[in-house]
Amino acid sequence: MSEDFYDALGVGRDATEEEINRAFRKKAAKFHPDVSDEPDAEEKFKQVKKAKEVLADDEKREMYDQLGHERFEQAEKHGATDAGAGGMGGMGGNPFGDAGGMGGFNDIFEQFFGGGRASNRPQQGQDLRTRLQIDLAAAYEGGQKRVTVQRPERCPDCDGTGHPPDADVETCPACDGRGQTTQVRQTPLGRVQQTQTCRRCGGEGDLYSETCATCGGDGRVRREATLTVDIPAGIRGGQTLRMEREGAPGERGGPNGDLLIDIVIADHPDFERDGDDLRHRHPISFPQAVFGATVEVPTMTGTAEMDVPAGTQSGERFRLRGKGMPRLRRRGHGDLYVTVQVVTPDSLNEEQREALEAFAEAGGEEVSVEQGFFERLRNTL
Asked: 3-class DSSP state for residue 65?
């Protein structure tokens, strides 16, 4: 069995990081294979190097102190056997897996020791989600909109502590003020200590004689908040905006979560959106289709002139470049596609009627107004 890491470095269990590094430099100078004449210098150098790597890292050291040397070594060995190259044994000499330090080892600890150690560190609050409906003009122009959400907030009367400032306090008897309780469990690797947040005091370490009347001891209240959100020009329905730190409050002094806003764009009476492009159906008269004309079509910023060539058929489509939606966070706009629809008149005055009868006769058509000439004309357009 290898030597305890504290003994290998010759430091106490309460040694600071500076003392650990100083002890390692002293031991390394003594046992480095390039300078030492001792027969087991290389093995001793590896041992002190490994001891320094573990004890100089807060998370690894805490794990080592909880498990003890023997079980720590067993857990490391087991991880190398089961995880293969993806675990502790195949990371270029790093016994703890990934380059982040504790990723692989923590996974193994979670699996074999039933949840690992509890953390009383500050934790970020949860993200919240809401919906905001805007019209197409707002999506085109961008700008600011107001959104109202119901969200938990830190209680203003107790500042999130859950108790009045003048409440009497006593040390939690369940954890002796540590905020954590320790249990010994039997595992495939032996008896192991498991530390978790104290259920009685919620990890605070103290118990209070009163709870806050406003939040009932929860430290949070649910309130309505109205916020101003920036809408980028060109945003599409289904996209999500993020407002940082506007979500639920964190725990133990941690930061708030974020507010996620799902954008819904209402239908527009004149335009149908297709990505950055817009589509519009525009009516034209029979003479405009026959002889050609310049017509005004609506756009998102007013109107634009569009040339209709002579002989245009109903259903033909024309493109107006740059008259579509702004490209989100890019330069330029999409296009506006206009589909023309020739409109057949429902009624004609006498002069119009005679002109159309003459038009039909000139084309060799035998028509009878009484038998539905205009209905037949409408069906041909």
From this structure: helix
Asked whether residue 308 is domain-assigned, the answer is yes
Note whether 93 and 50 are same-domain residues: yes
Domain annotation covers residue 209 = no
Q: What is the DSSP letter of 251?
A: B
CA 140 to chain CA centroid, nearest Å: 25
pLDDT band at 380 (very low <50, low <70, confident <90, very high): low
SS3 of 333, please? strand
Q: What is the pLDDT of residues 315-333, one digit of tens each?
A: 999 999 999 999 998 899 9
- Domain of 282, in residue numbers: 271-343
Number of domains making up the chain? 4
CA-CA distance, 211 to 161, in Å (whole number)? 9
Which is it for the CA torsion 228, 232, 234, 238, positive or negative?
Answer: negative
Structure tokens at 154: 């830190």
Q: What is the DSSP letter of 271?
A: -
Q: Looking at the chain, which runs of residues are DSSP E strands?
A: 128-134, 143-154, 169-171, 180-187, 190-197, 206-208, 220-231, 240-243, 259-265, 272-274, 277-285, 293-299, 302-308, 317-320, 336-343
In whole angstroms, how far apart are CA 74 and each of 8, 69, 111, 187? 18, 9, 14, 12
As a whole number, mean pLDDT of residues 9-31 equals 87
Rounded CA separation 178/120 (Å): 10
Tokens at 293, concatenated: 């004309």
Dist. CA 126–CA 178, nearest whole Å: 26
pLDDT exceeds 90 at position 80: no
- The sign of the CA dihedral 73, 76, 81, 84 is negative
**DSSP state string for 202-233:** TTSSEEES---TTTTTSSEEEEEEEEEEEE-T
The model's pTM: 0.59
Cα 146–chain centre separation: 21
User: How long is the chain?
Assistant: 381
Domain end among 266, 286, 320: 266
Cα–Cα distance for residue pair 227/149, rounded to 1 Å: 8
Rounded Cα–Cα distance for residues 243 and 259 (Å): 5
